[in-house]
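Thread amino acids onto this structure.
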């Protein structure tokens, strides 16, 4: 069963990490309902928030892949109720 959740992604630094994050997110586009990105060029920082509908396994796989990218921090929060 799937649940609704939020994934927060912070990318500090290099453009290569940004490109890798976008590639991973494209691989999981079927579970993403909404995406908002906020770049801060002065601080060389990017923040991305996602609204997802997915199983625990899908969220774990996505956040695991993102967390292995250098300069990337990722956190997730899911509803208790399944849909």
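Threaded sequence (83 positions):
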């Amino acid at each position: 069963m799937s649940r609704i959740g939020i994934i927060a992604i912070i990318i500090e630094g290099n453009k290569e990490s940004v490109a890798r994050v976008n590639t991973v997110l494209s691989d999981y586009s079927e579970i993403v309902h909404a995406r908002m990105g906020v770049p801060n060029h002065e601080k060389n920082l990017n923040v991305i928030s996602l609204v997802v509908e997915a199983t625990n396994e899908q969220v774990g796989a996505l956040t695991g892949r993102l967390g292995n990218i250098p300069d990337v921090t990722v956190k997730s929060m899911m509803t208790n109720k399944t849909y």
